[in-house]
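ESCALATION

Customer reports they have been waiting on this structure for their group meeting. Please prioritize. Original submission:
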Amino acid sequence: MTTGERSPGVGVLSALEGAGLVVWHLLATPFIGRRRLRWGTRGSEAGDPLPGDDLVPEPKWAYTLGIDVAAPPEQVWPWVAQIGQRRGGFYTYQTLENLFGCRITNTTEILPEHQHPEPGDQVYLHPTAPPMRVEVADPPRALVLFGSPADMDAAESWGMSTWQFAVLPGAAGGTRLLTRGRSDYSGGLAVRLAFGRFPIEAVTFVMSRKMLREIKRLAERAAGAGG
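Update from on-call: job pushed to the front of the queue and completed.
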């Protein structure tokens, strides 16, 4: 699918929006943080088991976010499958992220060369940061990424985290798209900054909510066009 469309995350106004939201959520964390951890979920979704939960069995903090998509899972999955730096991007605030050296391009197209993630594949979030590893690739149902210093030949595993996606059948032939993060860590300020809840969770929330909304828009546009 080729559209030539520019990502909504490109431009000064988008960067200012993203930065403003991050600052607001950092300041608001003591007041809304708990509710933010389950944004968009329904009923028991925030606590229901998802593929990949066992990789971080006792997280110190976790979140689950959800959104309805008026497109079947088969048309939502391609946008999830190609997530990553050097791949389809993250469907977020591209200009803002690139100010921090992410060097990403958030595509508005399905990229055939990135449609087949497999366990063991490396997915980069930043060009200079250690990649996450694909642990589960179950199209069109689940994609799970896992990261730990132990994977990078560190002397000890002082932290670990998952980034999980569940593409579930929804109402009227649509999709419930869930994303979850689980993080565990031990000791030290540097470790807490890398794996702890603050400030990572506030930033993650702003970016993840933008991502879910953009995947929804792209998948629904493709479904409406018969793509």
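Sent to customer with the following note: Residues 115 and 173 are 22 Å apart (CA to CA).
Escalation resolved.
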